[in-house]
Amino acid sequence: MTASAPHTKFEDAQGLVFGAVMCAFGVLILTGAGLVTGQTAGLAVLVAYITGYSFGVVFFAINIPFYALAWWRLGRAFTVKTFVSVALISAISLVIEDLVQVDPAHPAVAAVLFGLIAGAGLLAIFRHRASLGGVGIVAYDLQERFGWRAGWVQLAFDLALFAVALLVLDPDLVLWSLLGAAVLNAIVAINHRRDRYIGT
Length: 200
Description:
Elements: H1 9-32, H2 39-51, H3 55-63, H4 66-74, H5 76-99, H6 107-127, H7 135-146, H8 150-168, H9 171-191
Helix pairs in contact: 1-5, 1-6, 2-3, 2-8, 3-5, 4-5, 4-7, 6-9, 7-8
């Protein structure tokens, strides 16, 4: 397959902004139904529930320690784009609650909508060579250094996170949360393939 031309700075910018808006909107739907998700965003949601701090503040703070590892293992460009993505999602999350009212009819609806919307946002962020930091960076580093499969590392983290969520949330909400995480992961797994998207 012939590699396509790399994205321009403008294309990167609009892709990261689009991805951040979609992810922040997805989290708004998620938290509006009292659900949780996996990875670093899920940890931030759970901490926000427990402490009362806003998701945006917690998400931004949790990611700070991971940027040094990202710079060392994945390079400056990836780290800067990841920082921008996280900062955008954090900032948008702080204001979107006052701009958009969300009242899902059922947790299942919220779970599926979250998975679809946040999945689209993540695809945009990944396609422009960035991430949401945190667990994904650690998983990649462990894979490179010790041969641990990144997907399994992330799955182990998510299982631990949902186990903790059972101590904080209604078990029914945790089960619906698993549906949302499954939809999101399916969207990313099906649509984000490195063998189809090379050199962009």
